[in-house]
């Protein structure tokens, strides 16, 4: 179910801690790990899972909202969820993939330090693959095409290059900073500003 809809997740003291997709959002809701925060007339209403499904059955708010269809009814994908259980549910390790790597390295080539558009960036194995280098947080960095081909099949020092940062596994998803400068939903703004 990849609708592209995203839901902001707040911890119990209403601070943003994550952004999740639709499936995760509804699983948190139906397991009763989270409640829906719904913005209405300058204030917020909080719903548990059952109340939310009831609300979606009756409300006018369905119009123009982001909706998914379940077997029995239409449901609004919550824009914001409030966790009621421990935060660790969401403090998962950040998965190693290209997108997360670019975020870790802030879309900067880790050799020349310049910023690039995603499509102009490569994933560089610090210790080259064919010399036993793994594909992991600790051995892969973001690199521009030019630095990548200059370094070629060598270690940075063999190529006379230096890494800006030692590659490490990020502690957790730096989700809030990754949202800055990006268009976010109107209902999120309130909570993201509160964080600053
Ligand atoms: Zn570069």
Describe this structure in words.
The chain has 196 residues and is an alpha+beta fold. The chain has two domains: 6-92 and 174-195, no CATH class; 98-159, Orthogonal Bundle (DNA Binding (I), subunit A), CATH 1.10.30. 24% of the residues lie in helices and 22% in strands. It has six helices and nine strands, in the order E-E-H-E-E-H-E-E-E-H-E-E-H-H-H. It has helices at 22-30, 49-58, 98-104, 145-151, 175-179, 186-195; strands at residues 6-10, 16-21, 34-40, 43-47, 67-69, 74-76, 80-83, 121-125, 140-144. The strands form three sheets. It has a five-stranded mixed β-sheet with strand order 2-1-7-3-4. A hairpin with a 4-residue loop joins strand 5 (67-69) and strand 6. The longest helix has 10 residues, at 49-58. The radius of gyration is 21 Å and the shape is elongated. The mean pLDDT is 86. Zinc ion (ZN) is lined by residues 109, 111-112, 114, 143-144, 146-147.
């Amino acid at each position: 179910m990849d609708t592209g809809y995203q839901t902001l997740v707040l911890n119990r003291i209403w601070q943003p801690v994550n952004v999740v997709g639709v499936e995760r959002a509804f699983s948190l809701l139906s397991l009763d790990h989270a409640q829906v925060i719904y913005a209405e007339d300058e204030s917020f209403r909080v719903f548990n899972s059952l109340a939310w499904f009831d609300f979606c059955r009756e409300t006018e708010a369905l119009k123009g909202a982001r909706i998914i269809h379940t077997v029995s009814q239409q449901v609004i994908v919550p824009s914001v969820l409030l966790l009621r259980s421990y935060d660790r549910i969401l403090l998962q390790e950040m998965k190693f993939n290209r997108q997360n790597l670019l975020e870790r390295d802030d879309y900067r080539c880790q050799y020349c330090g310049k910023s690039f558009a995603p499509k102009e960036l490569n994933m560089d194995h610090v210790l080259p693959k064919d010399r036993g280098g793994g594909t992991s947080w600790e051995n892969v960095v973001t690199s521009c095409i030019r630095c990548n081909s200059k370094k070629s099949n060598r270690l940075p020092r063999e190529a006379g290059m230096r890494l800006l940062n030692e590659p490490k596994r990020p502690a957790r998803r730096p989700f809030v900073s990754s949202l800055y400068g990006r268009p976010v939903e109107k209902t999120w703004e309130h909570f993201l500003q509160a964080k600053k």
